[in-house]
Design a protein that fits this description.
By secondary structure, the chain is α/β, with parallel strands linked by helices. The protein is built from 14 helices and 19 strands. The protein folds into two domains: about 350 residues, Rossmann fold; about 120 residues, ANL, C-terminal domain (GMP Synthetase, Chain A, domain 3), CATH 3.30.300. The chain binds zinc ion. The site of zinc ion has 7 residues, from loops.
């Protein structure tokens, strides 16, 4: 049966559809807190029935009834990726949970071992609410706006599970021919021609895919591609790539922060480039290496709590491995007052650049191409990658746009400028090599485009440098 025809599903969903998207606009801080308290108590009760959480909480001497609101979160132990992996399957779903009603989803595992959790129809459907809210912020109507998602539709990947279990039943009720999914493996020229025919208002994909599309757009492809907004997720967006893409399409490119474990969008970047957290759906904390909360605005490791949904509960989960700086509240020019991720997600911890003497750069804070080229007004770098081979050796690969090679400052001047900019940042003990290459290679066995910052320095080696 179509799950939308089950009133146990459809009635709460109808409520979500009307009440979720505007909540952050209408609620003041006190009302939001009350909402969070209620949602948090409910989710802790649910988690208490799940063996992994039950055992951890019992060991810590906590009962679900001890939790009276979100401020009590500090009483609860953290949950690691390894905890979930060790307890899979029976330990990560509540006792009596009907596995047949659920779907397993797995993370990509490109940054280490993958982790699998359980989700279900209602959770996936509820996860549509933050997206509806984001669309409203960009004045897009989900029934009319033409939407393309270029993603990874592998079995057990969240994209495909959501497609099969939610979008398919939905499209049997409401024709959704304004939405198109495209696989990331389609060759680029075919991809841009398909997009051109569809004429989307919105495209969601990885920064590297946008960057290739922008290159083709600059070569005269895709004349009918005139979108309202581009959304990117799943990889770090650096300012050079952002400007490269925005300039080519004359359209804003904004970040959406999501993950498999979160099931829904955690935060989104508004037109003012503020990363608003969907605080009625998630509670975020930033911690240091001793699992102590860091102060507001300080850099820390993300611990995330999902305030909604069934399947595997996610409470104080540290497995997302991202660096963040959090502010409990910000009044943004866009009209929203929410908790925010200051300056955006700074990237994966395991891609950190660690330098002699213990200086650490999260990948997001190690992209200086944009600032190095300031004043040149050139887009002749088609793509780039920064690879740390050893603690004292960094290589910067540049792909040059052949048609722009002899326009403006020469390639050697640009390479020199980039080399100097990086040398200044890392100090004299590190060798910087800037090299021109034909392409940036895909990582082995990955279906995701190559990351901008790669480090082959093992974390342990870095920690030795840090003296910890
Ligand atoms: Zn804003």
């Amino acid at each position: 049966m179509n799950p939308f025809f089950n009133p146990l599903n459809s009635l709460p969903l109808l409520g979500s559809y009307f009440f979720d998207p505007p909540r952050l606009v209408h609620m003041n801080a006190a009302e939001l807190k009350r909402y969070q308290n209620k949602a948090f108590k409910r989710i802790v009760k649910y988690a208490y029935e799940t063996p992994l959480y039950h055992q951890k909480y019992k060991k810590a001497g906590i009962h679900a009834n001890d939790i009276t609101g979100i401020d009590d979160i500090v009483k609860l132990p953290f949950i690691t990726k390894q905890d979930i992996r060790n307890s899979f399957l029976d330990g990560v779903i509540p006792r009596g949970y009907d596995g047949n009603k659920g779907h397993m989803v797995s993370t990509g595992g490109t940054t280490g071992k993958s982790v699998s959790i359980y989700t279900d129809f209602c959770t996936i459907a509820k996860a549509a609410s933050p997206v509806l809210r984001e669309l409203q912020r960009f004045h897009l109507n989900w029934l009319k706006a033409r939407f393309i998602h270029i993603g990874n539709f592998n079995p057990n990947r969240i994209d495909l599970v959501a497609q099969e279990s939610f979008h398919k039943p939905l499209t049997s009720i409401i024709p959704m021919d304004n939405k198109l999914n495209l696989d990331i493996n389609i060759p680029m020229t075919k991809l841009i021609n398909t997009i051109n025919e569809f004429r989307p208002d919105l495209i969601l994909t990885y920064p590297a895919v946008f960057q290739h599309l922008a290159y083709l757009k600059r070569k005269g492809y895709g004349e009918h591609i005139t979108p309202t907004v581009f959304w990117t997720a799943g990889a770090m967006l650096d300012e050079y790539t952002r400007r490269y893409v925005e300039g080519a399409f004359n359209c804003p490119l904004r970040n959406i922060y999501t993950s498999v474990e979160s099931q829904a969008d955690i935060a989104f970047e508004c037109l003012e480039k503020t990363w608003h957290i969907h605080a009625d759906f998630f509670h975020l904390e930033a911690i240091d290496k001793n699992h102590e909360l860091v102060s507001a605005g300080e850099q820390g490791h993300l611990a995330i709590t999902r305030l909604f949904g069934r399947g595997t509960p996610i409470i104080r989960y540290t497995g997302m491995d991202d660096w963040v700086r959090l502010r409990p509240s910000k009044d943004c020019i866009c009209g929203l007052s929410t908790p925010v991720i200051e300056g955006g997600v700074e990237g994966r911890m395991r891609a950190n650049i660690i330098l002699p003497g213990g200086k650490v750069f999260p990948p997001g804070a190690f992209c200086f191409i944009e600032s190095a080229l300031q004043g040149f007004d050139t887009f002749k770098i088609k793509q780039y990658q920064i690879i740390q081979h050893r603690i004292d050796a960094i290589e910067i690969l540049l792909v040059i746009d052949e048609e722009l090679r002899d326009v403006g400052p020469s390639v050697s001047v640009i390479m020199n400028r980039i080399m100097k900019a990086y040398q200044k940042k890392v100090g004299p003990d590190v060798t910087i090599l800037v090299k021109e290459v034909d392409t940036i290679k895909y990582p082995k066995n990955a279906r995701k485009p190559p990351p901008i910052v790669v480090s082959h320095v093992k974390l342990e080696e870095g920690y030795r440098e840090l003296g910890v």
